[in-house]
């Protein structure tokens, strides 16, 4: 059985049109890197754009705002335009700004307008905690009680959420819907088109956090009727640790007032008039708050160059093949049977993001540590999940094959018992 899968992996790699992109990334020595859903790797292209901007600062000083190769003053708009085709955003609808949670606060402050009987925000109980913290904070800022006004769609199995259940809770008292595109633990991909259509029917604004899908899954925000969205750039987009995030506003909302106003959201041509009256740019750029951190953001230009060259549809096709291949081995390799390993990620392509979630109710943490000891870099999410993210741009099918074989050896030899049950700050 192992020989069959090895030959299949070799054939898949031989026929992989994206295989050449791997050599443009820095792979940490001695590792098989499978944590791109948490922090993507540095590319040579991103390094090049960083070094160019660093040199511009060195040689141009303040003149870089208008005279740099990509003028810093319009950097956020231009990078947003570059990334637009990855998420299906129209002209002016996507801006490269802020951080994900700051953008959530900014967007919710604009779109959450409780009044009359419509006072509630609909979210889900499996969302990333930071999103829930922000929603609770925004409800408090409106003088309301989060315990009453924040509705969390329950999960029937603790791993996935039913879209029909979400829709059934879009009732007359809901003022806003905010959801993830992909559940960060199980990698379930929500049907954003269906959910947006149903929210639009009911006149409820709907937004998404696409941090766990952008760069791995094509989206069509404008076509689907998504009202607003945000996503980070350091996972599948490979922008680097803490890199600037993206913010999307559907053009039908350009006239709304950004309540977390800041001077970089001012009309660009008049920004240095220094008026005390805020006149925001009628685009997603109006939701910018502060000056961009140009050095930290500079890597995105090079990273997007690779993404656009590869093509998001091609990236998605290979990503699905990688995760399907890994899942097939998990289900069929004899060495992996009888060890209480379970897959919580949906099997259907249309319902799966970019990673596979493996659960073990007792030993997930130590199994994760055993994999790391062998040179594999996954991650652990409490209480029972190991996330494996083979990334289309720099992982191979043969790497995924060896991962599955190694996991079988770890389980059969109980190698995980050598490790402590104490979780580190980052696991």
How is this fold's topology laid out?
Elements: H1 2-14, E1 32-33, H2 44-60, H3 64-67, H4 75-87, E2 94-96, H5 100-111, E3 120-124, H6 129-141, H7 146-149, E4 150-153, H8 163-168, E5 174-180, H9 192-201, E6 206-209, H10 221-224, E7 228-231, E8 246-249, H11 294-297, H12 299-310, H13 312-332, E9 342-343, E10 356-359, H14 364-373, E11 376-377, E12 379-381, E13 385-388, H15 397-413
Parallel strand pairs: 1-11, 3-4, 3-5, 5-6, 6-7
Antiparallel strand pairs: 2-8, 7-8, 9-10, 10-13, 12-13
Helix pairs in contact: 1-15, 2-12, 4-12, 5-6, 13-15
Summarize this entry quickly.
By secondary structure, the chain is α/β, with parallel strands linked by helices. Helix content is 37%, strand content 11%. It has helices spanning 2-14, 44-60, 64-67, 75-87, 100-111, 129-141, 146-149, 163-168, 192-201, 221-224, 294-297, 299-310, 312-332, 364-373, 397-413, and strands spanning 32-33, 94-96, 120-124, 150-153, 174-180, 206-209, 228-231, 246-249, 342-343, 356-359, 376-377, 379-381, 385-388.
């Amino acid at each position: 059985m192992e020989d069959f899968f090895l030959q299949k992996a070799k054939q898949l790699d031989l026929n992989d049109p994206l295989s050449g992109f791997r050599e443009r990334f820095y792979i940490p020595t001695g590792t098989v890197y499978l944590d791109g859903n948490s922090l993507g790797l540095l590319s040579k292209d991103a390094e090049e754009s960083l070094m160019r901007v660093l040199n511009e600062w060195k040689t141009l000083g303040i003149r870089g705002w208008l005279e740099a190769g990509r003028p810093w003053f319009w950097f956020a708009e231009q990078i947003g335009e570059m990334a637009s085709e990855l998420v299906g955003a129209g002209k002016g609808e996507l801006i490269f700004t802020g951080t994900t949670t700051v953008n959530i606060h900014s967007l919710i402050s604009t779109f959450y307008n409780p009044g009359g009987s419509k006072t509630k925000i609909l979210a889900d109980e499996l969302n990333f905690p930071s999103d829930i913290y922000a929603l609770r904070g925004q409800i408090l800022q409106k003088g309301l009680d989060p315990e009453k006004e924040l509705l969390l769609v329950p999960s029937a199995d603790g791993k996935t959420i039913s879209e029909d259940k979400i829709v059934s809770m879009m009732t007359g008292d809901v003022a806003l819907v905010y959801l993830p595109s992909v559940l960060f633990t199980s990698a379930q991909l929500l049907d954003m088109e269906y959910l947006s259509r149903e929210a639009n029917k009911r006149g409820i604004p709907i937004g998404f956090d696409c941090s766990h899908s952008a760069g791995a899954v094509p989206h069509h925000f404008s076509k689907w009727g998504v009202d607003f969205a945000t996503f980070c750039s350091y996972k599948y987009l490979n922008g680097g640790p803490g890199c600037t995030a993206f913010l999307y506003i559907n053009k039908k909302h350009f006239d709304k007032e950004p309540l977390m106003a800041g001077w970089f959201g001012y009309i660009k041509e008049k920004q240095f008039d220094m008026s005390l009256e805020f006149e925001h740019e009628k685009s997603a750029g109006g939701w910018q708050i502060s000056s961009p951190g140009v050095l930290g953001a500079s890597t995105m230009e090079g990273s997007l160059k690779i993404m656009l060259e590869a093509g998001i549809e091609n990236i998605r096709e290979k990503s699905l093949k990688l995760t399907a291949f890994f899942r097939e081995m998990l289900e069929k390799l004899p060495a992996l049977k009888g060890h209480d390993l379970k897959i919580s990620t949906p099997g259907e392509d249309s319902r799966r993001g970019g990673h596979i979630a493996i659960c073990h109710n007792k030993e997930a943490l130590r199994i994760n540590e055993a994999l790391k000891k062998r040179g594999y870099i996954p991650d652990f999410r409490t209480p029972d999940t190991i996330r494996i993210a083979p990334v289309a741009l720099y992982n191979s099918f043969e790497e995924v094959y060896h991962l599955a074989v190694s996991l079988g050896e770890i389980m059969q030899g109980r190698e995980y018992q050598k490790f402590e049950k104490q979780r580190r700050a980052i696991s």
